TrEMBL record:
Keywords: Hydrolase. Residues 37-115 form the Cobalamin synthesis G N-terminal domain. This is Cobalt-precorrin 5A hydrolase. One of its GO terms (biological process) is cobalamin biosynthetic process. Its EC number is 3.7.1.12. Residues 124-247 form the CobE/GbiG C-terminal domain. One of its GO terms (molecular function) is cobalt-precorrin-5A acetaldehyde-lyase activity. Transmembrane segments: none annotated. It comes from Zhongshania antarctica. InterPro entries: CbiG_hydrolase (IPR052553), CbiG_N (IPR021744), CobE/GbiG_C (IPR002750), CobE/GbiG_C_sf (IPR036518), GbiG_N_sf (IPR038029). PANTHER family: COBALT-PRECORRIN-5A HYDROLASE.
Length: 262
């Protein structure tokens, strides 16, 4: 869920443009208690676009901040739509990439202040599912996750899972349909990123030997591809039949030099 807040008529016009470009968004224009309304939306985990001064946004959200691993992504825009500032949860919550996506939609400049803004990240999807899971269930979940992360299918490097899913036709077909690599990884490989998981399931561990298939597979694939420390962009999401997570890693210097030499 994306909530857009605007305080001025010019801000409202910009918000209405965004509503057309991001139909899943909703608009709150000059709510009676701006700070309280913003804080409640933030605490519900809604991603926020605040069209206001950065100082107003900071003072409003400061009382409800928890951590970069839990807070939803927040963007601040000027009312003319010239600048997009990823204010909170830049890496972990995906605000940096979402900010770039919004800036592209508006023809604006994304003002990113977190580390590694000059490197293009590699995004990987991890998925787990019931045996013989219908492709539609996988596709719908993946589409929802991409929307939450502010990404498109074109941004994704690969679809990944645990090796016991190497013959799962729904996953194979989904990846092939979008011309993505489908990769599976062993339990020892996935166990190496255990410390990066946002949540752990004892049931999943007892069943397959890792505490989470989707997050582990996404993280390990990002690390394998980029050669640098991976991070979760979107923690595990699920529907009745499948789970999905999105990870990211930035190419390190060695991998960049290797690519130049190819």
């Amino acid at each position: 869920m994306i909530r857009i807040f605007a305080l001025t008529p010019a801000g409202k016009r910009l918000a209405e443009r965004l509503l057309l470009l991001q139909p899943s968004s909703s608009l709150s224009y000059r709510p009676d208690n701006f700070a309280s309304t913003v804080q409640h939306a933030f605490l519900r985990g809604e991603r926020l676009i605040l069209i206001c001064a950065t100082g107003i946004a900071v003072r409003c959200l400061a009382p409800v901040l928890v951590s970069k691993h839990q807070d939803p992504a927040v963007l601040v825009l000027d009312e003319q739509g010239e600048f997009v500032i990823p204010l909170l949860s830049g890496h972990e919550g995906g605000a940096n990439d979402w900010g770039f996506a919004v800036a592209q939609l508006l023809g604006a400049q994304c003002v990113q202040t977190t580390a590694k803004p000059y490197l293009k990240p590699i995004y990987t999807v991890g998925m787990g599912c019931e045996r013989h899971c219908p492709e539609d269930a996988l596709a719908n979940l993946l589409a929802d996750c991409l929307q939450q992360a502010g990404l498109s299918m074109a941004d994704i490097h690969s679809v990944n899972s645990i090796d016991i899913k190497a013959d799962e036709m729904g996953l194979i077909s989904l990846a092939a349909k979008h011309s993505l690599a489908f990769q599976t990884w062993s339990v020892p490989q996935l166990a190496t990123v255990e410390g990066l998981l946002s949540q752990r399931s004892d049931y999943v561990f007892a069943t397959v030997g890792v505490y989470g298939v989707a997050e582990s597979a996404a993280l390990y694939a990002a690390q394998d591809c980029a050669g640098d420390s991976p991070e979760l962009l979107l923690s595990k999401q699920k529907n009745a039949k499948a789970t999905c997570a999105i990870a990211r890693a930035y190419p390190n210097t060695n991998s960049i030099e290797a690519q130049k030499g190819q």
